[in-house]
Amino acid sequence: MIQFTIEDRNGERQPIEIPEGINLSLMEVLKASEYNILATCGGMALCATCHVQVLNGLETLPEPQDTELDMLDTLPDADSDSRLACQIRVDDTLEGAIFRIKSEEPV
Amino acid sequence: MITTDICIIGAGPVGLFAVFEAGLLKMRCHLIDALPQVGGQLSEIYPQKPIYDIPGYPSINAQDLVDNLMEQIASFNPGFTLGERVEGLDRQTDGSYIVTTNEGTTVHCQVVVIAGGLGCFEPRKPEIVNLERFEGKGVAYMVKNPEQLRDRRVVLAGGGDSALDWTVFLADVANEVTLVHRSDTFRGAPDSAEKVFNLARQGRINLVLQSTITSINGNGHLQEVSITAKDKTVMTLAADHLIPLFGLTPKLGPIADWGLTIDKSAIHVDTTDYSTNVERIYAIGDINTYPGKLKLILCGFHEAALMCQSAFRYVHPDQKLSFKYTTVNGVPTF
């Protein structure tokens, strides 16, 4: 099992356990876990509505690709620890990581 | 006032296809969209992305699908109000509706169909103290008329293509142009980034990198912008206009206040006809929700077809609807 933590917009943290070998993105896990995020573009790094801040474990994640960096660059509140959840595959590099949901809450 | 049978809010693929299905049943449509062009998410977010699950098309680019839909509905002559956001909905005594936009356009219709995808795409607003106070008083999120900025002091914020392009353009128009960006590099088009750096080297624009705008002030109209650098130093800049360019984000908007049953930005519908809890208002496509809902264009097309069969009774209450395949009559226009 892969274990990581999600901090919601209210600062509440919830541990998440995902079996290894499941081909999901972090965005898909967030949606499946009933977190209120839009993920408008469906995972193409085109809308930034799945913006997360990596509070722990940033260095172990695979480097962001150009499309992700391009989109992050358009966000007013992105920083060096920002990532798009749709571009992060859930695998053992996420073990122990902590993600804070940064995208705006849908009305 | 515009008069039509069905007012469709949202000109994305599902809204466009609803025009076709309505046209087959002799119902006229008028579409309203906050974006300046048709196509919704497809045209705005991913026009060049291929879509693989449209029946009959092993692969089709998003914009090509929009173009084909426009060709498919052309014979039904739908009306379009683009670049305006629906604000008001007034039910008339006979059950019909008058839909009003933020620009004052009014549409009288028998049926309202919400095909708004994920809602209106609105400018993404940065956290700047007093930002909303100066909207329309120096703060704007797009450049509608560059001439209004001629010989003025303009501050732009952002690091994407829009911020770069407008910085280059306004360098020849405004009296003073300042671009503020939180990073020290730009990931927009390399050519545009190079032009911006060249303009800064020539002293034709001010480039403030590794910084963000934190507050703005003025006496009735914007007068100054406070910029905080990563090292926490603060500088104040005189400015007449601030244009934050951080892209668009979807919002449900005024639809949320229409008494519809809404859960997590989606409208509950009856799957027999995709009607909402409010009579004569339907919701189709990504904006609705029901058990088993799949946010797929092809599901939205199906919903549009069933919606029209149901809406017919309001538009033609004195006629009996008999279902026919298009292979029987072809595509009869008005």
TrEMBL record, chain A:
Similarity-based family: Belongs to the adrenodoxin/putidaredoxin family.
Question: Per its UniProt entry, which superkingdom is the organism in?
Answer: Bacteria
Q: Name one Pfam family in it.
A: Fer2
The protein's name in its UniProt record: (2Fe-2S)-binding protein
Report the GO molecular function annotations: 2 iron, 2 sulfur cluster binding; electron transfer activity; metal ion binding
GO BP annotations of the record are: P450-containing electron transport chain
Q: Which keywords does the record carry?
A: 2Fe-2S, Iron, Iron-sulfur, Metal-binding
Database matches in CDD domains? fer2
**Cofactor(s) the protein requires to work:** [2Fe-2S] cluster
Question: What InterPro entries does the database record attribute to this sequence?
Answer: 2Fe-2S_ferredoxin-like_sf (IPR036010), 2Fe-2S_ferredoxin-type (IPR001041), Adrenodoxin-like (IPR001055), Beta-grasp_dom_sf (IPR012675)
Its lineage reads: Bacteria, Pseudomonadati, Bacteroidota, Cytophagia, Cytophagales
Give start and end of each 2Fe-2S ferredoxin-type domain: 1-105
TrEMBL record, chain B:
What's the short name of a Pfam family annotated to this entry? Pyr_redox_2
Task: Please write the reaction equations for the catalytic activity of this protein.
Answer: 2 reduced [2Fe-2S]-[ferredoxin] + NADP(+) + H(+) = 2 oxidized [2Fe-2S]-[ferredoxin] + NADPH
What cofactor does its activity depend on? Answer: FAD
Q: Which residues form the FAD/NAD(P)-binding domain?
A: 5-291
Give the cofactor note text. Binds 1 FAD per subunit.
Q: Which UniProt keywords apply?
A: FAD, Flavoprotein, NADP, Oxidoreductase
Entries under InterPro entries matching the protein: FAD/NAD-bd_sf, FAD/NAD-binding_dom, Fd--NADP_Rdtase_type_2, Ferredoxin-NADP_redctase_2
Q: Which Gene3D superfamilies match?
A: FAD/NAD(P)-binding domain
Q: Which residues bind FAD?
A: D33, Q41, Y46, V86, F121, D286, T327
- Ranges that cross the membrane: none
Keyword Cell membrane attached: no
- Which SUPFAM superfamilies would you find in this protein's record? FAD/NAD(P)-binding domain (SSF51905)
Superkingdom: Bacteria
EC assignment: the record states 1.18.1.2
Task: Give one GO molecular function term.
Answer: NADP binding
The record's family statement is: Belongs to the ferredoxin--NADP reductase type 2 family.
Q: Subunit structure of this entry?
A: Homodimer.
Protein known as: Ferredoxin--NADP reductase
Question: What organism does the UniProt record list as the source?
Answer: Spirosoma foliorum
Record lineage: Bacteria, Pseudomonadati, Bacteroidota, Cytophagia, Cytophagales
